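Whether sequence alone determines local backbone shape is best considered at the level of individual chains. When preparing material for the folding task, we compiled for one chain both its residues and its backbone structure tokens. The sequence in question and its structure tokens are set out directly beneath this paragraph.
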Amino acid sequence: MKLYCITDSLDVVRRAVNVGVDLIQIRAKQLPARELLLLVERAVSIAGHRVLVNTRTDIALACHAGGVHLPANSPSPRSIVPDGFLIGVSCHSIDELRTAEVEGADFAVYGPVFESPGKGPAIGLDALRAAVRGVRMPVYALGGVTEENAKSCIEAGAYGIAGIRLFSQ
């Protein structure tokens, strides 16, 4: 099972590396650019190219991170990034998934699959299953995913699972 951790904590980055997490998104929306740059530099020194940066392609490139994670319908940076640079996109509908795929995303995070505080109503496993079938790129399940229900996401066709609380406990 592929694992995608979303965090703003270097302690969580260290734990994620120790348990074999595949990708680690640094999401620290509140930090000024200089502080985010320092956080990403430290995360890359711990986790290498597994690190993706939330919304800031410039900082990801400056820190030699593995890629960037963008909101749906963001302009794709594909034409300005080097080969091998990953682009992930957060999606909440099949249309957003298809658009992300056409615009060159390497993978998507899709949800919320289950109830998750502040993320709106859960889409459920049937919607996840339909979404995964609607695109060729890998789709990670996000939103309320726990150790107990992660297997059901994989059985529904998800490439892996993504989360914040799942990895910060």
The beta strands are 2-7, 23-26, 51-54, 67-71, 86-91, 107-110, 139-141, 160-163. Helices lie at 10-18, 33-47, 57-62, 94-102, 124-133, 150-155, 165-168. The longest strand covers residues 2-7.
